[in-house]
Amino acid sequence: MAVVLFLKERGFQTPIDPSFSIPEMSSFPIAKPVDNLDELKQSVHQQVNEYRASKNLPPLQLDPRISEEAVKHSEAMASGEVKFSHDGSKQRFQAVGQKIPYRMIAENLAYNSGYADPGRKAVEGWIASDGHRRNMEGNFNLTGIGIARNAKGEYYFTQIFVRSR
């Protein structure tokens, strides 16, 4: 997993918790693949908001304009077009900014395979990581979620957090 925070006012990216390592993935599927990625996206959104509620934080509104950019990145990672990384985050953030003026933006990524509930596994991983958790607990009001699955059954998650102006 990886996390990056971009403060538009300062114009720089700050990697958070770069030493975090991704647990080794299972080499064989132990669960039937989740076919409905929209339901999976809704589940991730609900889990993130439930976590925020447990910290007395307001829920994040799921915004399709932000999700569009998150989906593009997840699909590019799942297809192997780009590696699993925040590479290109500046362009994603600029694309979001053309649709929604923002004060702050951040991104969480995850990938996994072989789990009955890959969305829950991604959210649990984010909660367990200081940098990801900071993004989940951040002063954001909007979010976009993109999920893609490749032929190997690997799920790629991109969640973008936005504090609109």
From TrEMBL:
Q: Which GO terms describe its molecular function?
A: peptidase activity
Keyword field contains RNA-binding: no
A biological-process GO annotation = proteolysis
Question: InterPro entries recorded for this chain?
Answer: CAP_dom, CAP_sf
UniProtKB keywords: Hydrolase, Protease
Q: Does the keyword Hydrolase apply?
A: yes
Task: Give every SCP domain span.
Answer: 47-161
Q: What is this protein called?
A: Serine protease
